[in-house]
Amino acid sequence: METLERHFNARIAAFLDRTGMPPTTFGMRAVGDPNLMRQIAAGRSPSLRMADRVLAFIDGYDADSDGARAPPRRQRRRWSKAAAGRTRGGGAMADRPGGKRTDEPIRFIRASEIAARLGVARPTIYGWVEAGRFPPPIHLGPRVVGWIRSEFDAWVHNRIDETRGGAQGGARPNPNRERTE
Q1: pLDDT digits over 129-154, tens only?
Q2: What is the dihedral of CA 15, 18, 24, 26, to 10 degrees?
Q3: How far is CA 75 from each of CA 25, 72, 175, rounded to the nearest angstrom?
């Protein structure tokens, strides 16, 4: 007689063989844990709830694909930092007014990361927002706010320009620079 655990493991192994899906991808898609298969192989028994989630994923995957093997995923192309600013379309952006990309996702940054990057406390950031000295946050949920990363970066660059005198026109002398007399 086959135990439930052996049946469960055999069903996962058959699914992985049939689809060609890597075990880490399977773990992430099924339960959000890329180490799931490694932990099961090491002897960890999943809870009934987790086993139900895994089996529901397998059943849903089979229903969506009608049992067909999923095509292999292409590897993402790695771009060097030098090539990151260049476009790949051969002038596709030149046709758009202003040359702005419209397909870039908006990235948010949380207060804790802003505080860490600036070396200030989170209440300081909220004080600056109230005083109108910092971009206002975007409400992402009932109790969650974030800042648009490009606005934060622009604010940092503006602060650098203001501090170094770039915005007022006169550059401050650099005290670390050697004097030639």
Answers
A1: 999 999 999 998 888 899 999 999 99
A2: -50
A3: 13, 9, 49
